[in-house]
Amino acid sequence: MAFGKGCHLHLIDGSAFIFRAYHALPPLTRKSDGLPIGAVAGFCNMLWKYIEDAKGSDAPTHAAVIFDKGSHTFRNDMYDKYKANRDEMPQDLRPQMPLTREATRAFNIACEELEGYEADDIIATLARQAREAGGRVTIISSDKDLMQLVGGGVEMFDAMKNRAIGVEEVEAKFGVGPDRVVDVQALAGDSVDNIPGAPGIGVKTAALLINEYGDLETLLARASEIKQPKRRESLVDNADQIRLSKQLVTLDPQTPITFTLDDLEIREPLVETLLDFLNRMEFRTLTRRVAEKFNAEPPPAIEITASTDAATPAQDAPPITPESYVCIRDAKTLEKWLDQARARGWVAVDTETTSLDEMQADLVGVSLCIKAGQAAYIPLGHSMGEDDLFGGTARAEGQMDMDAALALLKPVLEDDSILKIGQNMKYDFKIFARHGIRVAPIDDTMLMSYAMFSGLHNHGMDALSDRYLNHQPIPIKDLIGSGKSQITFDKVAIDTATRYAAEDADITLRLWQQFKPRLHREQVTTVFETLERPMVPVLADMEMAGVKVDAQVLSRMSNAFAQKMAGLEDEIAQIAGTPFNVGSPKQLGEILFEKMGVEGGKKGKTGAYGTGADVLEDVTTLEDVNPQAAKLAARVLDWRQIAKLKSTYTDALQTHVNPETGRVHTSYSIAGANTGRLASTDPNLQNIPVRSEEGRRIREAFVAGPGMKIVSLDYSQIELRILAHVADLPEMKQAFKEGLDIHAMTASEMFDVPLDQMTSDIRRKAKAINFGVIYGISGFGLARNLRIPRAEAQGFIDRYFERFPGIRQYMDDTVAFAKEHKFVQTLFGRKIHTPEITSKGPSAGFAKRAAINAPIQGAAADIIRRAMIRMPAAIAGLPATMLLQVHDELIFEVENGAIDDLIAAARATMVGAAEPVMKLSVPLVVDAGQGASWAEAH
DNA sequence: AACTTCACG
DNA sequence: GACGTACGTGAAGTTC
């Protein structure tokens, strides 16, 4: 079809795709030969996503990917410094360039480039031709240099933000229409491309001038009339340079291309060619996806031969074949399998249940694996798929009696000489514990992965299997469905369940065989054995104990909150002049910043006004300017606080009270947070309110049983103490040894104020700085936190570094270490990987601060883990139970008569938790509290 | 499912 | 001249 009216041309900025892919991904290499391949992988994924996304109602009729060719263009002949400040192309990107062209052709998309011209010029030429032919054009790019082309049927599309860029967006960015963009760019220049422009004039000023004088030539002609001396001189003195800049930024719409628009017509991918290319690149996931999409058979995976990578599955491991798994239906067969486990000394174990909540889940079956490929499933609680006449479910045929099977399993699961291997063993541990079996000893592939790879990827079975076994397990959704029609596992047919469940045990064993030797190579065996694995029984016991929560107290609070909210809603509707959903930030933003005319509303990346608490607090100060809005903001803040307390706490907590135990049982994820911290879920009991008076009252509902009290012990300033130790800060260490107020001491050092003349405001500032340092301080962040000018904040930081030179050293050393090794380490050897540390752009800043914070937050996490692991022995014999951990705090339930003993024993354990492996140069201090509720104990 | 907001250390 | 930043989490509600 000839290009013409009604046609729609997509032009993809290929170089932008490549660089985005390169910087977004870690430096991946092809497994078989180590060829750098990350950018190609990202590029292919982006192209694939583009193709999928472009299939909508506004689908293109023609499309092409346009690349830059070489680095020398006609602009270099005009100006030899053009793009001269660009870094050389990274070494590992260079060999990927031709592959991106090959990839484009493999997807059967037109692929064009032209010697001596930039991709932007070709795009300009094609856009012009398409417009002249009466068609429409969409440029897939967010490059500002292309914005001059927008308008009259040409628009841009930012594929990352999923956002169209039309005339309005261009005007928002440059302050002028697309036809004057080059004038503004000529004046403002561009440090990235080394366009000189007019010194001292940026986009804002340039737009102002162009809007006033109409265009660049008029402006330059009348430059002498400009009042501001700086601007006038800059324009008068640099007129030639500005004209040159304009030539440099203006795209050439007449490049001598040798193809026509008709050549760019959309073509279906040639499936075989495409799959062959993807397979040669060894992109497993994408190959599979593409094959699935076209219902094609994926080509046989490339054989990996010359690899020393431990990720290569053992040569002798048979392929994973779910059809070969055994279903154990009688005692004799089970005994045979258990004998195998006894003979080998290990067995991989996995349980299937009816729920993810271990406290409510019923056991449905157990799977075992004793050797890669040799796995079995023991169905124990399967029912018929359909309900019977009486609304109950009949037990499925061919299953062992549950008690009989567990009686055979128990001696093996509790046998000291047989290692039980699991993936996320805490889950199975709890299931078995509810049947009177304490599984030990254990290994856990999830925790092994966490010890070795924290920060690199998550540690779920699907991710590990895909990554380390090159195998995608049967998705659970295939068995039980999803959403409303989801069924419980006991309803799954036994033969289907056998394939799924035994596969999990098989995968777990294979992962374990691969990980076990690698723990040593990665030098994290001690971390795994002293900080990860022992947490499993400790946390399982805490979770099973649960904490008593008085639902009546919560219910009363919920009712009170509901009344208060209703009152506030009425008041808010009245101030706004119209009722609206107060819980909708979008509606609130529109009312505040449009209807009520509050100025300075800032839109986020989705185009919605920000209405966070800090923004609303600023609005409340506008009493004189806009009293109605100030009042509205204040009421909304009140409403928000109560709504949060009600929905997240007083309402939700009630639903988490277990009907059998009358207590709330959280679940801790051991491998959730990168730094070694735990995370609490379902419900999260690590973020129960405390900072506000109203919120703190929720803790009154966390109570002790009759004759008992809640006891709380928390580390005082543990992260600052660790910082003082690792960064070697003599003044701070001394202050901790003397038991001084550390924030007051910091303030005194920094602001030269004697301790006896300290004010709370100065101390507050020092406290914010102390925290800031732990987080990888920046002037901007501190300024925002303290609500002071940025320059002042920067002054504080400079002074802090001057007074505590060890800090700067620590930060520099940590970042340098991270850059060299791609991980950082805690005092106890825990590794936290920081793959982003070498990336460019904003993510580099994030990675840096995370790298600075991780060893400190991580060491604190290590220390409380050590205390928790020792705690059961330390308090054995006392009528006390450890219930909760909140990062630096442990909460116990203790009989009244044993409170002092408990505090003494637990405090000693916590204070000495770093020893004997680590002798800190600062003391650890533990504060204790007690009471009828958590509110009183804290 | 993504985004925004807000609770904690 | 402009941009975009404090570290680590989980849950609820709205919007698409």
TrEMBL record:
Family matches, as InterPro entries: 3'-5'_exonuclease_dom, 5-3_exonucl_a-hlix_arch_N, 5-3_exonuclease, 5-3_exonuclease_C_sf, DNA-dir_DNA_pol_A_CS, DNA-dir_DNA_pol_A_palm_dom, DNA/RNA_pol_sf, DNA_polI_H3TH
Gene3D superfamilies: 3.30.70.370, 5' to 3' exonuclease, C-terminal subdomain, 5'-nuclease, Ribonuclease H-like superfamily/Ribonuclease H, Taq DNA Polymerase, Chain T, domain 4
Keyword Flavoprotein: no
The DNA-directed DNA polymerase family A palm domain, residue ranges: 695-898
Domain 5'-3' exonuclease: from-to ranges: 4-267
UniProt keywords, alphabetically: DNA damage, DNA repair, DNA replication, DNA-binding, DNA-directed DNA polymerase, Exonuclease, Hydrolase, Nuclease, Nucleotidyltransferase, Transferase
Matches recorded under CDD domains: DNA_pol_A_pol_I_C, DNA_polA_I_Ecoli_like_exo, H3TH_53EXO, PIN_53EXO
GO molecular function, one term: DNA-directed DNA polymerase activity
Domain 3'-5' exonuclease as annotated: residue spans: 325-520
EC numbers, comma separated: 2.7.7.7
SMART domains found in the cross-reference section: 35EXOc, 53EXOc, HhH2, POLAc
Catalytic activity: DNA(n) + a 2'-deoxyribonucleoside 5'-triphosphate = DNA(n+1) + diphosphate
Family: Belongs to the DNA polymerase type-A family.
Subunit structure as annotated in this protein's UniProt entry: Single-chain monomer with multiple functions.
Name of this protein: DNA polymerase I
Species assigned in the record: Thioclava arctica
Lineage: Bacteria, Pseudomonadati, Pseudomonadota, Alphaproteobacteria, Rhodobacterales
Gene from which this protein is expressed: polA
